[in-house]
Design a protein that fits this description.
By secondary structure, the chain is mostly helical. It has a domain at about 65-145. It is built from four helices and no strands. The model has no long low-confidence stretch (mean pLDDT about 80).
């Protein structure tokens, strides 16, 4: 059994290391440098400094549409829908049941156009008048249809 367990036989007596371990000069040098660096970081107080803020970054491919562009686009779309609606009303082969979903879309688009029109500035007063007249026309047609004016 003594030949198998030779790991514990190191050849150095365990009693030789009873004293304090000796320090190398390099270990002291590292400790001194470390302490000096630590003292410097702890001694400094936070000094407020001014930071330059980032300026706005312009995008080269982004096209921003303002409110007047949105309103004019939605007004044109609503006018096209009203035109298609009037053509369907004149066609005797198209039933009122088939026209009703078209008129419902017209009503919804008129509502969203009204919301966008409220955001227009005073500089877009003429566009606001055209959009408002288109909205009133769409709502009037919706009410006429719901009231039964087109029943024969």
């Amino acid at each position: 059994m003594t030949t198998i367990n030779q790991i514990n036989d190191s050849g150095l007596p365990l009693t030789a290391q009873t004293g304090k371990p000796q320090k190398n000069d390099t270990a002291d040098a590292f400790e001194n440098v470390f302490n000096k660096a630590l003292d410097k970081t702890q001694a400094k107080q936070m000094i407020p400094t001014s930071v330059n803020a980032l300026s706005e970054i312009a995008s080269s491919g982004l096209k921003i549409i303002d409110s007047s562009g949105i309103v004019s686009g939605k007004t044109g779309k609503l006018l096209d829908m009203l035109d298609a609606y009037s053509i369907q009303l004149q066609d005797p082969e198209v039933s009122l049941k088939n026209i009703e979903p078209v008129l419902e879309k017209i009503r919804i688009n008129a509502g969203t156009l009204f919301e966008e029109t409220q955001r227009l500035s005073a500089a877009d007063e003429n566009l606001k008048k055209i959009a408002t007249q288109t909205i009133v026309t769409a709502q009037t047609e919706y009410l006429k249809f719901q009231r039964g004016d087109y029943l024969s």
